[in-house]
């Protein structure tokens, strides 16, 4: 062992000893005279052997073992120490970053290992520390761990972490864990400028599409819709991305705030003809003047295909007709996980009708009219029967409009991942850009009514895919329940049938 390796071993041993004693709430001051004694104590009592096999392991094995929770902390510490003595090639270096990011961001690894990896990242891999810790922040959904990572990122500071921080602002975890303020503070500290200016810079000149979309969403949260549209239209048209945003902002007053909304804009603009886009814009302007309607790209299909009489119904009349019909029906409410949980949502119409757009109300009205038809109910029950006996996947598809009536089209799943999931196929994703809504079934041999309505995953998926969803639930052999919910998480129970 050369002098450099010996020095590193001593440094690592001192670090591990300080962590061990700190965990035992023992406060000491280590001076040079006691160092050798502490070093020997740690090696003999904790390492367990003087002839470790770890130095003989391949670099690939070491990297894999660094993230292996089944190994003891003692052995993983040895693995981590040995990794610091190696110089992996670029591919292995990238794999190491992925493993380290997962370890730091996950509570499944012990605090000792997480602290050790955090120390190694910032001490041995400082050039990559911003990217690796940024990835760890995106991977983590634990408030305490996220707070620790944000604190370290602020102390680096490294401007390469800013894209990761901007992306993390748009993730559901930031909303649920209420750490958006801390993330914004970190961005402003590292960039040394207000969050609005940082977001505008990354929107205009960002290298990755997902970062530019996240910057746009961040800008949208910090400013009003009209302010964002003004800033968008003032940007130099440097590329197709900015041109696409400026088209939808200028023609429809619309700002796509996630990657799926942006792709919906791209596909619709490419697939629709000039006259179709003109018809869409005319109807949007009509509803904006009459109902103060705010356009969303998910509404394009209904706005283009619904009859004139359908869109001439005043919103107050829509509300009244829907309310009267729903009071005639029986309803089944889903049992929530716990009070205040994401699935503890209201399902009544009267208290939420003001939260629904004109187009959402039109969808609900169309669904209720179709649900009066026996053949439509029989089709739903056929799908529920198929789903009940198919335990490899949920049954689902898309809702379309045919002569002012809802049509349910079934799509085979892209993958079969179990009885409680429906994975969309590429065909359904493509067709779903222009549809009324998505639909899928909830059936179970024992739970029945407990599955009525959307679960937490359903609500999150509707938001990500930017499309309303209809959930069909088998309550019993003869009764089914229908729920409608929006990407914003507004749920309306459409009744039992």
Q: Care to count the β-strands? A: 6
Spatial arrangement of strands, main beta sheet: 2-1-3-4-5-6
**Mean model confidence by pLDDT:** 87
Structural class: alpha+beta
Shape: globular
The major β-sheet equals: 6 strands, mixed
Distance between the termini: 78 Å
Question: Count of DSSP helices?
Answer: 24
How big a fraction of the residues is strand? 5-15%
Q: Spans of 5+ residues with little confidence (pLDDT < 50)?
A: 1-7, 21-34, 44-50
- The percent range for helix content is 55-70%
Rg computed from alpha carbons, rounded to a whole number of angstroms: 28 Å
Question: Would you list the SSEs in sequence order as H and E?
Answer: HHHHHHHHHHHHHHHHHHHHHHEEHEHEEE
Would you spell out the secondary-structure blueprint of this structure?
Elements: H1 3-23, H2 32-47, H3 59-66, H4 73-85, H5 90-105, H6 111-124, H7 126-139, H8 143-155, H9 162-169, H10 172-176, H11 180-191, H12 195-205, H13 209-222, H14 225-234, H15 240-252, H16 259-271, H17 274-291, H18 300-305, H19 308-311, H20 315-327, H21 358-370, H22 374-389, E1 396-402, E2 405-411, H23 426-431, E3 437-442, H24 456-465, E4 469-474, E5 480-485, E6 491-496
Parallel strand pairs: 3-4
Antiparallel strand pairs: 1-2, 1-3, 4-5, 5-6
Helix pairs in contact: 1-2, 3-4, 3-5, 4-6, 5-6, 5-7, 6-7, 7-8, 7-9, 8-11, 9-11, 9-13, 12-13, 20-21
């Amino acid at each position: 062992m050369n002098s450099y390796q010996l020095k590193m071993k001593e440094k690592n041993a001192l670090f591990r000893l300080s962590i061990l004693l700190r965990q035992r709430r023992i406060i000491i001051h280590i001076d040079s005279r006691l160092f050798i004694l502490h070093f020997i104590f740690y090696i003999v009592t904790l390492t367990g052997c003087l002839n470790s096999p770890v130095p003989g392991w391949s670099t690939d094995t070491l990297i894999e073992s660094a993230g292996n929770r089944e190994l003891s902390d003692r052995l993983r510490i040895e693995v981590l120490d040995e990794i610091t003595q190696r110089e992996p090639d670029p591919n292995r270096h990238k794999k190491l970053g992925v493993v380290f990011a997962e370890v730091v961001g996950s509570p499944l690894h012990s605090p000792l290992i997480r602290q050790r990896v955090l120390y190694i990242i910032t001490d041995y891999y400082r050039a990559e520390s911003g990217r690796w810790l940024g990835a760890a922040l995106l991977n983590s959904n634990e408030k305490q761990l996220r707070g620790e990572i944000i604190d370290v990122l602020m102390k680096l500071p490294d401007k390469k972490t800013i894209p990761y921080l901007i992306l993390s602002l748009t993730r559901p975890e930031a909303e649920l864990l209420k750490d958006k303020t801390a993330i914004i503070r970190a961005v402003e500290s590292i960039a040394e400028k207000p969050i609005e200016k940082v977001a505008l810079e990354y929107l205009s000149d960002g290298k990755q599409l997902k970062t530019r979309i996240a910057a746009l969403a961040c800008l949208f949260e910090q400013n009003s819709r009209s302010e964002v549209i003004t800033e968008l239209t003032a940007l130099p048209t440097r590329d197709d991305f900015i041109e696409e945003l400026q088209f939808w902002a200028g023609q429809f007053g619309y700002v796509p705030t996630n990657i799926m909304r942006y792709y919906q804009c791209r596909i619709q603009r490419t697939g629709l003809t000039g006259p179709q886009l003109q018809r869409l814009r005319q109807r949007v302007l009509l509803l904006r003047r009459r109902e103060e309607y705010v356009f969303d790209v998910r509404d394009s299909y209904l706005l283009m295909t619904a009859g004139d009489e359908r869109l001439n119904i005043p919103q107050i009349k829509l509300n009244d007709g829907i309310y009267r019909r729903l009071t005639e029906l029986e309803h089944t409410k889903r049992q929530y996980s716990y009070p205040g949980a994401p699935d503890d949502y209201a399902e009544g119409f009267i208290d939420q009708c003001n939260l629904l757009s004109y187009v959402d109300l039109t969808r609900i009205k169309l669904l209720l009219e179709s649900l009066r038809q026996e053949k439509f109910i029989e089709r739903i029950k056929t799908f529920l029967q198929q789903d009940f006996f198919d335990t490899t996947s949920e049954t689902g598809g898309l809702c379309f409009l045919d002569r002012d009536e809802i049509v349910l089209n079934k799509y085979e799943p892209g993958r079969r991942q179990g009885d409680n999931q429906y994975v969309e196929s590429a065909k359904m994703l493509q067709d779903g850009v222009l549809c009324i809504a998505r639909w899928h079934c909830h059936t179970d041999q024992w739970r029945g009514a407990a599955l009525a309505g959307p679960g937490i995953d359903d609500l999150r998926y509707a938001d990500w895919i930017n499309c309303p969803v209809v959930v069909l639930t088998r309550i019993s052999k003869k009764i089914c329940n229908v729920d409608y919910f929006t990407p914003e998480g507004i749920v309306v129970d459409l009744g039992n049938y």
